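Retry 2 of 3 after timeout on previous attempt. Resubmitting structure tokens to design endpoint.
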């Protein structure tokens, strides 16, 4: 398989692609995601919009190749919980999620830079947290795992102990729903030995 262009610096997304043995290179453009937060959109439309913008921004630097853009948020009580800006924000998020069920939404886009054709999709997973004590929350915050994580936690890390159950894709909660990734890449015959090839060429 040829490499894809991952328009994300997320270590979790890199880990998932490595696990799937999908070769990739990382290339991102700076983008202010907050400019989308004021738009009145359904959450699934919002994450797909941001994933498309990430893919399109990176695609301008390549004349050939498949670009993968993704965006993940935690959604609870009609509020979007993105990456906490501070330990206090993360503490607030975990207090909100404690003893409750929240949803994790990911938008994903695959863009072919050769012709500009793209496909976008989304995934939603429900996650149930057990009730957390203040001591548990403080210990987790002190270890710093919350940093850079939507909702202030990482399900693949120590926060796995907080989870009573999930409905939907586990990998979606990590930040890259592999089910949708496979479906979208298959539109390009990416996994077919006699399918198309997408060597990466920069502009």
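Retry 2 succeeded. Sequence:
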């Amino acid at each position: 398989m040829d490499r894809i262009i991952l328009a994300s610096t997320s270590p979790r997304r890199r880990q998932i692609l490595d696990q799937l043995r999908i070769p990739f290179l990382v290339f991102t453009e700076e983008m202010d995601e907050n400019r989308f937060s004021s738009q009145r959109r359904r959450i699934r439309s919002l994450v797909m919009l941001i994933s498309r913008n990430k893919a399109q921004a990176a695609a301008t630097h390549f004349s050939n190749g498949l670009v993968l853009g993704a965006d993940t948020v935690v959604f609870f009580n009609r509020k979007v919980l993105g990456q906490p800006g501070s330990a206090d924000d993360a503490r607030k998020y975990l207090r909100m999620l404690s003893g409750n069920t929240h949803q994790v939404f990911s938008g994903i886009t695959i863009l072919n830079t050769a012709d500009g054709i793209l496909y976008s999709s989304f995934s939603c997973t429900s996650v149930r947290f057990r009730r957390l004590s203040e001591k548990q929350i403080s210990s987790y915050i002190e270890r710093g795992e919350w940093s850079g994580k939507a909702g202030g936690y990482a399900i693949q890390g120590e926060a796995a102990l907080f989870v009573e159950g999930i409905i939907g894709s586990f990998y979606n909660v990590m930040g890259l729903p592999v089910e949708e990734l496979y479906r979208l890449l298959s539109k390009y015959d990416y996994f077919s030995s006699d399918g198309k090839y997408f060597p990466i060429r920069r502009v």
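Attempt log closed. Residues 43-59 form the longest helix (17 residues).
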